[in-house]
Amino acid sequence: MSSLASRYGAAAEDVTAVTGQADTYRGWSLPQKTVDHMADAAKMAKDNEAISAGVGVACDWMMGNITTPAQFRNSVAKAGIGMTYTDLVAFRAATSDLAEELTTIKDQGSPKDKAAAALLCYVYQAVPVK
Length: 130
Known about the structure:
Mean pLDDT: 81
Number of domains: 1
Structural class: mainly alpha
Order of helices and strands: HHHHHHH
Number of helices: 7
Radius of gyration: 14 Å
Helix content: over 70%
């Protein structure tokens, strides 16, 4: 749990505390709505891996692993390979919104919101989306 927490800038004890109820915290519930928009765009392409990759891009932006708009655009384009142009535009907008929401939570959220966001980042990248 501590490596997950440190990877996404949350305290291990906070991640442990919100496990099982993370969806009740702003750090999960707010980004979840945006992930749902990403999923809608990716469903058209029948590409669950794109959702995981898009969440990964947003989480990498939040943590400063992607630092420029060009890197962000390139990463989103790679995640959306195979999508139609219209689906990719919607997917890119949702990924951008998610990155902004996660960054705001990282910068201004409560410790438990940060922990819930860390769990969201982990879960969507580790568990296949159905």
